[in-house]
Design a protein that fits this description.
heterodimer, A: 287 residues, alpha/beta, Rossmann fold, 2 domains, B: 274 residues, two-stranded antiparallel sheet, 68% helix
Chain lengths: 287, 274
């Protein structure tokens, strides 16, 4: 059974005049445990709303129809209790865009401890989880530092550690790399991949960077509240016209390869990374 | 803006730095009470000497202590002068009498006593609290000390959480203010010339974006805290637990002895009593 199952989900925001503005339209989606999924889409495509719904952190649910089931539990049902929602938030962790706006404490390790403290865990257990989480993101030596003295990438890794310490089964990254410089982005992406690979945490990474989507196992493209494409990166990048319709561009190397192919050059294989492209070009030259 | 230091915390490694923040708050209160208990020359000498001992033990440079005293030098002079001229003593102790001004020996004593009291009070409370305790330790200490009030439905945890978040966001907001000011300067804003009114008006285009961004940050933070299962102080545990050690009890005993000494000296009122 799918870990997250979304069926016929519609969601509308209410604007200042009280009119409903549709954001998500008839979304149906199944996500298995351990998957690494990138959600692509231009601004306003509804991707952040989808993420927030998975954690039930939206103020007004009046414009919502459909069903979201996580781990077999219907979180959209009106009978769901407060405790069940806390349970959900423990299992599905969220990392947001701006690292400054999600760190609570003035010392790194105190901040990582914030989640486990909220869960009411015993002191020794919190200590163990905090040390473990900081080691996982490679920030152990900064445990006693103040967050405002860290770089963007380091702060975001601390934020990730704060979620790991709650031991979630699934993590949602809501444009977590958008505000970082290239070095910070690399640090964060490598951390995300490590979590998926070594801890088998289900990852849902919302982004508008194509090169991040390439690294995922499955890519979902949202356009104006609809799922436009859903498949492996190679499948997604074989539909450049649809991508362009969603306001997205192909990664440069894939774009080049597709253009060469159009000219009749016999290229084979995947074109997702520069390495794959080089290999495919070499193969074509040797023929 | 990475070098911003909150409060007046002076990092050093001393016995006082290592004390439990709860004990330090209590010690500071005891010290302030003692400074008010002092009534005669011996108790004030004792009080003043204890302040010097505190400075030495806490390893706070004298320069820094003087800096904080300089801020209240006007208040000290003012109260001293008031006491010199307005204290009415015994007729035989009249020192100077000129027109309507009468200065008595008691007035001089009172002035000196008051100055010693204020100086010791400032030194004592700032050494126990601001110089040797980080703001976060202080918040933590206040939360634990006040936790019995939770039974009376005083939102102690919420108050401490607000303090922590404020401390966390001060450097961020300061940095942001500077960014906005630079941005407005680049658009020709002038913050440093003109009348006071004009300069205050020039700050409006800085404050508005600052407030908008602060509210947005608050919203984001609230969402992030909700996602991390925050639901107030109920059922919450703590990773770091404050623990009183031997040195904390020793310091409490010392301060109790000090209070007793001040009281005893007052009972055997030596010399002039305030």
């Amino acid at each position: 059974m799918a870990y997250i199952k979304i069926s016929d989900l519609n969601f509308s925001y209410r604007d200042d005049d009280g009119n409903f503005i549709p954001v998500l339209k008839d979304i149906s989606l199944e996500i298995e445990k351990g998957e690494y999924i990138a959600v692509l889409g231009h601004n306003g495509s509804g991707k952040s709303t989808l993420a927030k719904l998975l954690n039930m952190v939206i103020d007004d649910y009046e414009g919502m129809t459909g069903k979201i089931e996580i781990n077999g539990k219907d979180i959209t049902s009106p009978e769901i209790t407060e405790d069940e929602i806390y349970e959900l938030r423990k299992d599905v962790g969220m990392v947001f865009q701006n690292p400054d706006n999600q760190l609570v404490a003035t010392i790194v390790e105190e901040d990582v401890a914030f989640g486990p403290e909220n869960l009411g865990l015993p002191r020794e257990e919190i200590r163990r989880r905090v040390d473990d989480a900081l080691a996982t993101v490679g920030m152990s030596e900064y445990a006693r530092h103040e967050p405002h003295r860290l770089s963007g990438g380091q702060k975001q890794r601390v934020a990730i550690a704060g979620i790991i310490a709650m031991m979630p089964e699934c993590m949602i990254f809501d444009e977590s790399t958008a505000m970082l410089d290239p070095i910070g982005r690399k640090e964060v992406i490598e951390t995300i991949e490590k979590l998926n690979r070594e801890r088998h945490i289900t990852v849902l990474s919302i982004t508008h960077y194509m090169d991040e989507a390439v690294r995922a196992g499955r890519v979902i493209v949202l356009n104006d509240g609809n799922i436009l494409l859903d498949g492996t990166p190679s499948y997604i990048f074989s539909k450049p016209d649809l991508l362009r319709e969603a306001g997205l561009d192909l990664p440069q190397c894939a774009d080049l390869m597709l253009r060469l192919k159009k000219r009749g050059i016999p290229l084979e294989g995947d074109f997702n990374t520069p390495e794959q492209c080089v290999r495919s070009l070499l193969n074509a030259l040797h023929k | 803006m990475k070098g911003i230091v909150l409060g007046q915390y002076y990092p050093a490694d001393s016995v006082i730095h290592r004390l439990d923040p709860r004990i330090k708050i209590i010690l500071a209160l005891i010290y302030i009470v003692c400074s008010f208990l002092c009534r005669n020359i011996f108790s004030f000498v004792l009080l003043f000497m204890s302040s010097i001992v505190l400075i030495l033990v806490s390893r706070i440079p004298l320069k820094i202590v003087f800096r904080s005293l300089r801020a209240i030098i006007f208040i000290m002079l003012f109260t001293a002068v008031l006491n010199v001229f307005w204290t009415k003593g015994e007729p035989e102790n009249l020192l100077v009498s000129w027109k309507f001004i009468n200065i008595y020996t008691e007035g001089i004593y009172n002035a000196v006593f008051i100055v010693v009291r204020i100086v010791s009070m400032i030194i004592g409370s700032s050494i126990f609290m601001t110089y040797t305790t980080t703001p976060i330790q202080l918040t933590d200490g206040i939360e634990r000390l006040l936790s019995p009030l939770k039974k009376l439905h005083v939102p102690v945890h919420e108050f401490a959480m607000m303090m922590t978040i404020a401390l966390r966001f001060i450097p961020i907001i300061v940095e942001e203010t500077q960014k906005i000011m630079s941005a407005q300067k680049a658009r020709g804003a002038d913050f440093s010339s003109g009348s006071l009114m004009k300069r205050a008006k020039a700050l409006v285009p800085v404050l508005i974006p600052l407030f908008i961004s602060a509210f947005r940050r608050a919203g984001d933070l609230a969402t992030a805290m909700t996602c991390r299962c925050y639901r107030g102080g109920k059922g919450r545990t703590k990773m770091t637990v404050l623990k009183c050690r031997a040195r904390d009890y020793v310091m409490l005993a010392v301060s109790a002895a000090f209070t007793a000494a001040v009281v005893v000296i007052n009972i055997y009122s030596f010399g002039y009593t305030m």
